[in-house]
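Reviewers of the previous submission asked for a worked example of the structure-prediction workflow described in the proposal, so we include one complete record here. The input consisted solely of the amino acid sequence. No template or homolog information was supplied to the procedure at any stage.
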Amino acid sequence: MKKSTLISTLAFSLVMLLSTTLSAQTYSDLDKSPLDAASFPSSYKVSEKQVKVIYSRPQLKGRDVATLAPDGKVWRTGANEAVEITFYQDKMFGDKKVKAGTYTMYTIPNEAEWTIILNSDLNAWGSYSYNEANDIARVTVPVTQDEESLEAFSMAFDDDGTMYMGWDTLRVAVPIK
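From that input alone, the workflow returned the following structure tokens.
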């Protein structure tokens, strides 16, 4: 009996050693532009969600917004993958009715106004494969200035469902009803 216990213990130890060695993983470092999400309403009840946006948050790190999101050029509205926005029910995006579903969201920044674009292409990295033919809706909104500077690009919703974007002292309000 002692012999079988010893053999079992040795066999188990060998299996554990091999499985640890064979399944060792290499994990990536933390992303420099962390993934974040904002939703409306902001309650934690999934059944109440109407809109959710998933985006990465680039940081200024001594650079200016115009360098990171050049005026007049399609921008991914954040960093890394293009932003994904999910409407859990039909909504008005500006003055355009948008059906429930998931879309990518791009932005064309300009000094006085930003054009916010919903596009049907999904799983896009950046804005490199952006195709205007697949646009679902566009809304152009004014840029305002705030006294507070935000180091990281940020998105949030107010109690009425308006989506706000802010970076450095720039602020943009996107009407969603």
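The chain has one domain: 50-174. We consider this example representative of the routine output the project will generate in years two and three.
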